[in-house]
UniProtKB/TrEMBL annotation:
GO biological process: DNA-templated DNA replication
SUPFAM superfamilies named among the record's database cross-references: P-loop containing nucleoside triphosphate hydrolases (SSF52540)
Any Pfam family the entry gives: DNA_pol3_delta2
Name the UniProt record assigns to this protein: DNA polymerase III subunit delta
Organism in which the protein naturally occurs: Fibrella rubiginis
Domain of life: Bacteria
């Protein structure tokens, strides 16, 4: 992965490049961006860049530091993509690149990053804009929870105790460190406090609020913004050869989530968001009608869905509640909805009080938490449905 492979984000790329050229690169960087952003891609591009043997446009080809003022004003520097280091990084087989990521416990010793490394390499090489649910699906753990186990802590310490094999840096890339258990998080904290020489930590997170405060304090945050509609549409046209109209529509629907846009672009229609909207609209109408038989059947169907699909439906419900609130406050210019969803928001928003929407958001967040903690989905949704039916009636 090179910086030039990532659409947009020129300011972030330039900041990272200049940090390397001026010898101001922190030993630990926290790439903070939401799911579907460029945070993982930027981390991989930086890992390629720092160990490239002949970086282009850096002003110090073949060297690591000492960039001149003229070099800093030159076009964006990048890895060459041709040297031995870049070629190995493109296949994720560089001996100084170590990666840790969440794994579902699949049994037979397949509960560590090392055990599923071939699958991980293929997963990232195919597309670096991926989500946790994509990764669990790819490894057969779609109905399980991914986490970074305590055994990973020992692996991290063991790998970092060795000197760099051939690159300027040893690189430890940790994807979604917020899913570390307590033992792993404490081990990471210890090594961040006393980092080995010439070691670079790249932490890629979607939820930094779930990380230990002490870990946050020892890493330099790199804020990764969402993709713009133009960037998403450009990437879809380049990679999937979509026409301009469909690429623009997918960009609009996914609101900067390139992972979701790519997934929808590979299907024949935009069914993912459409199905979620139909599910939510039917749910709210049944709550309004107090149709208990329908709500019980819906809870049974919800119970049979994969966990990531259940979470996706709750995420969509929360997003539409936000849109309902914006509509009630007169901020319709902030709504990013296609016609059918906008019409639903306009009609349903007329019968809900703002304080009711606030209560619904709180209940949805609590329900999502219980699903995350392995509560029975059928009971969670049915309880939520009965609560909403009562609130809407009153």
């Amino acid at each position: 992965m090179l910086f030039s492979d990532i659409v947009g984000h020129d300011d972030t790329k330039q900041t990272l490049v200049r940090a390397v050229q001026t010898n101001h690169l922190a030993h630990a960087l926290l790439f903070d961006g939401r799911a579907g952003s460029a945070n993982l891609a930027l981390a991989l591009a930086l890992a390629t860049y720092v160990n490239c043997e002949t970086r282009s446009g850096s002003g110090d080809e073949g060297g690591l530091f000492g960039a001149t003022a003229a070099a800093l004003e030159a076009p964006l520097s990048d890895g060459c993509g041709r040297c031995s280091s870049c070629m190995k990084m493109s296949r994720l087989v560089h001996p100084d690149l170590h990666m840790v990521y969440p794994v579902a416990n699949l049994g037979k010793g397949k509960n560590t990053s090392e055990a599923v490394l071939p699958e991980w390499r293929k997963f990232l090489i195919d597309n670096p804009y991926r989500t946790l649910s994509d990764w669990l699906d790819a490894t057969g753990g779609e109905n399980k929870q991914g986490n970074i186990a305590a055994e990973e802590a020992r692996n991290i310490l063991q790998k970092l105790s060795l000197k760099a094999y051939e690159g300027a840096y040893k690189i430890m890339l940790i994807w979604l460190p917020e899913l570390m258990n307590v033992a792993s998080a404490n081990a990471l904290l210890k090594v961040l406090e006393e980092p080995p020489e010439r070691t670079l930590f790249l932490l890629v997170t979607n939820q930094p609020d779930k990380l230990l405060v002490t870990i946050l304090s020892r890493a330099q945050r790199v804020a990764v913004r969402n993709f713009t509609d133009t960037e998403v549409a450009t990437h879809l046209r380049q990679t999937l050869n979509l026409d301009e109209t469909r690429a623009r529509r997918l960009a609009y629907l996914t609101d900067g989530n390139l992972a979701q846009a790519l997934k929808m672009g590979q299907t024949k229609s935009d069914d993912t968001v459409g199905d979620q909207h139909a599910w939510f609209a039917d749910w709210m109408r049944a709550c309004y009608r107090q149709d208990l038989n329908w709500l019980v059947k819906q809870a049974d169907q919800f119970d049979a869905l994969p966990k990531d699909r259940q979470k996706g439906l709750f995420d969509y419900s929360l997003r539409l509640c936000r849109d309902l609130f914006l509509f009630q406050q007169g901020a319709t210019q902030l709504l990013r909805l296609p016609d059918d969803e906008l019409k639903f928001v306009q009609n349903f928003g007329k019968i809900l009080r703002p304080d009711l929407i606030d209560r619904m958001v709180g209940d949805l967040n609590e329900a999502a938490y219980h699903i995350e903690r392995n509560a029975r989905p059928k009971m969670v949704l049915l309880d939520l449905s009965l609560t909403f039916a009562r609130l809407i009636k009153n």
